[in-house]
What we know:
By secondary structure, this protein is of the alpha/beta class. The protein is about 55% helix and about 15% strand. It has one domain: 5'-nuclease (Rossmann fold, 3-Layer(aba) Sandwich).
Amino acid sequence: MKKIIVDTNIIFSTLLNSNGTTGDLIFNSNGFFEFYSCDYMRFEIRKHWSKLIKISKLTDEEMHDAYEKVLTKINFINEAIISPATWIKAEQIVRDIDPDDVDFVALTNHLKGCLWTGDKELYSGLKEKKFRCVYSTADIVKKRYKQT
């Protein structure tokens, strides 16, 4: 199975519409992909919790239930296990794209996986720099259906 590192945008999309494409991919890709993310992503979700509830029109309890379901599909990795050299390389890659995404790029390199992002600027910037492996949602859909 392919290791896919998901960024916060993908989780936001899944929480806001679990029946949409990203939700379908997260919940129905067993046997195709193994999903990973940084521990930091949980902090990001909590930081934007009120905004997620407002946009989704879910109650706090409903959002909590949706969040718990998403968490069961993702393997979380503590960023502390990533080597300093990997961090430095990731910082160099994202410094002129979006430094806030350094965690996801570092984890992608550490796991030798592929980054799935909903951030168009990050996607384009990484593609331009010939980053090892970055996917949009459309790319992930193609990969999954290619394997069936």
